Amino acid sequence: YPYAGGVWDLRSLTNNGSVIATNLQPPAITTPGDITVSCAGPGGTPVTYSSSATDMFGNPLATFCVPTSGTAFPPGRTPVQCTATDAYGQTATNSFTVTVTDNTPVSLNVSLQGTDVVLSWLQPCSTYYLQSNANLDGSTPWTAVTLPTISSNGLNYVTVPVGSGIAFFRLIDR
Description:
Blueprint: E1 8-13, E2 19-23, E3 28-30, E4 35-38, E5 45-46, E6 52-54, E7 60-61, E8 64-66, E9 72-73, E10 76-85, E11 91-101, E12 108-113, E13 116-122, E14 128-133, E15 143-144, E16 149-152, E17 155-161, E18 168-173
Parallel strand pairs: 4-11
Antiparallel strand pairs: 1-2, 3-6, 5-9, 6-7, 8-10, 10-11, 12-13, 13-17, 14-15, 14-18, 16-17
């Protein structure tokens, strides 16, 4: 092989005196820089990217990345690690981060239907949880609402009977 700027171990000799050269240069992996996208929905946001690798001679190598390109990434930061192995068994890795942001403002809608109060909120990307409190003077803690939540097309509904003693509600993002 012609010398291509790599590091070779030339210490091994065969019985006939010829040199056995061993490649000590790992593959070169190219990955995108960090990626930031807006959330597409509660099931995550599909993100596609490309990666490539070459051995020391410039020959292309397969790269294997986890999570794979096209994966639906959840809100927040997710590291992606890519690996390539050359014909000599040398492995190299490179990584980047996919950040999914949720810029949708949360809004709690309240309506009266007969003798019930119906609370509804859109849950486009992040998961919001409904909490309640009997008063706002700080004497009682906020607690999770244990009434059944109905979800349909990203919209959640909770029905609270009027006179249940629950006066205040809030949504929190966990």
